[in-house]
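Protocol step 6 of 9: fold each sequence in the batch and record its structure tokens directly after the sequence line. For illustration, a two-sequence batch is reproduced in full.

Sequence one:
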Amino acid sequence: MEYSLPYLLIISFYLVLMVFNRFYQGVKTRNKIRFFCAFVFIIFFGCRGYIGSDWYNYNISYELTSWNEWLITDYEVAFSTLVKSLKFLGFNYFSIVLVITTFQVYLFDRFINKTCKNIILPYILLIALFPVVIIDLQRNFTSILIVMNAFLFLQRGNKRKYYLLILLAMLFHLSAVFFFFISYLNRVKFNTLVLNLLFVLGIIIYVLQIDFYTPILSVIENSVGGSIGGLINQVTREEEVGYGISVGIVEKLFLFIIIISKYKKVKQQNLLYVNFAVIYILIYLYFNTSQSFINRFANLFMFGYIWYYCFIFSNIKNKLYNFYYVLIIMFCLLRTSLSYNYEIYSYKNIIFEDEDYMHRIQIRVNHYEN
């Protein structure tokens, strides 16, 4: 609990805010809650120190970047342009993290405000279930958030703005290219028998830890090369390992069963997010032997997963509300305590204390050696 405690405290803040929101509602209250949720998230994660793992690579990239030279790592032009501009204006690495986090929170708030009745629960689920996304995947997370806002235009029939935003998302992270080809997910309802068969097969692959995709991806990597090949290489390395049997996978199995049991009754306006939740869980099952693949590809569909939990919560009957609320508290607190209980997540906020660069490097080295 030593390293998880700060994250448990911020989760507890949002949970208390949920209790408050149950008794005080209305447009003005909702807007105030939106502000508090966003502000606390920005202060907590936007002002973080050298937390997690990828800060090391982002920091090196910041030190090397300049307007005079474009490196091979600058192929995601929008992200690189943002960092180069901020550095040119005199911002340090921590200030850049703050600016990027603020932009992410703006996109997150815009999306959940239009798609979720409860705007507090998405923050809780995001923090509890996706620590790697928030802390380590700056480019990926920004790209995913742009994609989710793009789907808001697609649902209104505005394909032009949708594709323009997908193009922008690609300039933050190339993985967004997949959304050029799957825009149909907002109108396609899969066969439940097929989904059940895929689910059972996925469980077998997960339990037996079958790696069927590395040879296929290696062939693709050698064929395409370049930036796409580099992304594929990250998920085919020998040191890649799976998550194994955990609280998280048990919870995902139960959620998938709930989704499939209600799938035939899904309304058209909700189909996109339900399909995202289904795809997220299936990718998690089939590609579990590579944490990098899950972090970079399964998480492209993470908002369907978050949305579905919010949907359940918003439609729960009053007599079951307290039970579901307690269940959410227990689950999120458990996941938070487990997910962040590593020394690399030892929390520091640069507003209140300075960071020790060499000490953090040693923590990172020790983490990977162990």
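Sequence two, same batch, same settings:
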Amino acid sequence: MFKFYKTVTVAALIIISACRIQAQQYIAGVRGGASFGKNPGNFQEADVFTGMYLPWLWGSQNGLNLKPRVEVSAGWLNNEGDSAFVGTLGPAVELREGKFPVTLDGGVSLSALSRSDFPERNLGGWFEFTDHIGLNWHVTESITLGLRYQHMSNAGFYRHNPGLNLLMLSFGYRF
């Protein structure tokens, strides 16, 4: 059933992307990934996100510039069959060189978990921070594909603070 909805969502976004929209002030999409490295647990995360680009551009339109946005996401975090809701809200910036189609993306968000104690890993508590850095390929003016490294941690607010590292792929639609 999930595969059907995923296929329909991707098809709808591709059809919508054929429409030329000038503003390009918002982005919406889906992300998914998994934990890696020597950390215990086998975590997967999938979420939907949306963002609003802010009206500022730091730098030159035709040269190096930073474009800020505010982003919110809601999703699912799973480890060995135990699942939790994860939600984030925070700022991000896109570093771009003129019209080059690849951008560097980074940000930090406040995060909330519906559960923090998983098999093999106690994340400490419901309140976390999620920071990321990654690359986005702007396939068209509307379609963006991304790869990012994401780290979730409670910054020492709780006794347990092991952190969680994920490698995430994303599909975004700018409108």
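Proceed to step 7 once all outputs are recorded. Observation for sequence two: Residues 99 and 150 are 26 Å apart (CA to CA).
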